[in-house]
Design goal:
Length: about 350
């Protein structure tokens, strides 16, 4: 059996991006995915690159998110060049909407520290918002416009990263479930899968919400759990919105071909990926209250996905302290799409730096 330098377990956006970065640095890489590339959370994501929209308070991930957002123009270009895939990168900003006086005060406070952190954030009255986005409800109190936030098509980004890795000679094995990481004398020797044993020198665990069994082998306190999110998509023949509207943990994002992606619910500890009728009703009601013109849109589809949250509430991105060749990168929760370019480079550098010939 052929031996690999690095095996990536899980073909979501995190695994595919790390594989691409490693393959570009000349390592012989394989991605092993139990279903298909981009079939987990990375398939479900709305693809918002919402650094300012998502971070209400400063934490160290904020700086990582800013650096990652800045990498997207290059990522989009490289994937298009290597694979022909358009990741749908849009850099038209995001509006953080206030529906109540309380939200208005809150988003003004958030704006103050973000400006101090060096970001752009433009305060707009309800009338000013409707000058640029005339379909937004006159009931809103105001908004902050974040011109440097943006969005992508998450499944296209994920498949693009995997195929770009393949273009740099990585191998992709779908319908290949990893059962166990094999370690001998404190060194990774390979992985046991439903399709046999794959020898390798390094393994990176990027299995999202399904990571706990592998993480226990990494560190007995580590674990991830799913936070289920339900999303709907509507279609409109006339343009309703130029840039996404964001309220705390709710958004309406205009996508290619007249589609509007709206979501998402938050249900911790649910591995069930069906969409509840009551969730659809709630999402539609909230969406109509912000963008009433959506009532004339037509139905496209609905889906759900599992955000990988970590037990510690922070992503695990590290090398095992004693087992040679064992790495982890998971638990990116609500922002794995946004963080992926930075994480890919960060983990690939760590893995190449620790590679033992
Ligand atoms: C509804 C929703 C909306 C979201 N919106 C956004 C957004 O707007 N912006 C943003 O930045 N992020 C968003 N996210 C979060 C983002 O989707 C995740 O953080 C990101 O996709 C995580 O990527 P991942 O590669 O770690 O996990 P996943 O994409 O879940 O990939 C893990 C992969 O591992 C595979 N796997 C598991 N076990 C095994 C095994 N034993 N062997 C082989 N393969 C295995 C799985 O099949 C899966 O494909 C959203 C998530 C959801 C659910």
């Amino acid at each position: 059996m052929k031996s690999y330098d690095s095996i990536i377990i899980g073909g979501g956006v995190i695994g595919s991006t790390i594989a691409h970065c490693l393959a570009e640095q000349g390592l012989h890489v394989a991605i092993l995915e139990k279903n298909e590339i981009a079939s987990g959370a990375s398939h479900a994501a709305a693809g918002l690159l919402g650094v300012q929209a998502e971070w209400d308070e400063y934490d160290p991930l904020y700086d990582m998110a800013r650096k990652s957002r800045a990498l997207f123009p290059k990522v989009a270009e490289k994937i298009r060049e290597k694979t022909g895939i358009d990741i749908g990168y849009e850099a038209k900003g995001i509006y953080r909407i206030a529906h109540t006086e309380e939200e208005w005060q809150r988003i003004k406070e958030i704006r103050t520290w973000q400006i101090a952190a060096g970001e752009e954030a433009v305060l707009l009255s309800s009338e000013e918002v409707r000058k640029v986005e005339p379909n937004v409800s006159s009931e809103i109190v105001g908004a902050v416009y974040y011109p440097t936030d943006g969005h992508v098509l998450a499944p296209a980004l994920t498949k693009g990263q995997a195929l770009a890795a393949a273009a740099s000679s990585a191998e992709i094995f779908e319908y290949t479930t990893v059962l166990q990481i094999v370690v001998k004398d404190e060194k990774v020797t390979g992985v046991q899968t439903t399709e046999g044993f794959f020898p390798c020198k390094q393994v990176c665990i990027t299995t999202g919400a399904w990571s706990t069994p592998f993480l226990k082998q990494f560190n007995k306190n580590y674990g991830t759990y799913p936070v289920k999110g339900e999303v709907i998509s509507l279609k409109s023949n006339r343009p309703l919105l130029k840039a996404p509207l964001f309220l705390k943990r709710f958004y309406i994002a205009p996508k290619r071909y007249g589609k509007y992606v709206i979501g998402a619910t938050m249900e911790p500890h649910s591995f069930q990926e069906q969409v509840k009728a009551s969730s659809v009703a709630d999402i539609l009601q909230r969406a109509f209250s912000i963008l009433p013109a959506l009532q004339d849109a037509t139905w496209d589809r609905t889906w759900a996905g599992l955000r990988p949250e970590s037990n510690e509430g922070r992503p695990y991105m590290e090398a095992h302290p004693t087992i040679q060749g064992l790495f982890v990168s998971t638990g990116h929760y609500r922002n794995g799409i946004l963080l992926s370019p930075f994480v890919g480079e960060y983990m690939a550098n760590k893995m190449v730096g620790n590679y033992v010939y």
